[in-house]
Amino acid sequence: xxxxxxxxxxxxxxxxxxxxxxxxxxxxxxxxxxxxxxxxxxxxxxxxxxxxxxxxxxxxxxxxxxxxxxxxxxxxxxxxxxxxxxxxxxxxxxxxxxxxxxxxxxxxxxxxxxxxxxxxxxxxxxxxxxxxxxxxxxxxxxxxxxxxxxxxxxxxxxxxxxxxxxxxxxxxxxxxxxxxxxxxxxxxxxxxxxxxxxxxxxxxxxxxxxxxxxxxxxxxxxxxxxxxxxxxxxxxxxxxxxxxxxxxxxxxxxx
Length: 255
What we know:
255 residues; alpha+beta; T-fold; 3-stranded antiparallel beta sheet
């Protein structure tokens, strides 16, 4: 994950936005907003939000430890916090455990909050992205040792945002995946759903021959807008995932 994080964060720092980091325990966010909307108090407000939401989730996990270990959909307790409900619902739609959506859930939470202050918002959380923009942006795809890694990007039109763009990998990072895809990328209406769906997509790819069936599965999920699968030199694309060549330093940028 450190290598992946360095790649994404080098790509994301673009001239038209001001970027800052917020770290609370395992939650490590890179955030971008319009220059005139940035202030030190905004950093403090986001950190406070993340601390409060992490505390709510951690307290819930102590009451419902199965939520943290489930690899299939899990029914939350009636008094679960909203973030746990969001994670569980996304996981239910794609057939994975709710923690598969945790990074995306925090990206959504912070992204929606920042959207109250800025028309341009980028939230990166472990390579998972919440994006809100008034102009077309491109988002690079990191796929480990694949020859396609850092060579292609997703072109995201403004009218598709806000949305989540999340990646699962069986060869990069420490996140659990039962597949062997170098990158399974999902575009969805929320980062919470994109995160869970990327895990489900990646789990279905063991060989290049699995790409077509995996993409067929993911396109049936309500709220999923597009997907990309990379395994070695092989690539599959579906839906509103439009690929363009990636130029150095242009992963999330004005176009």
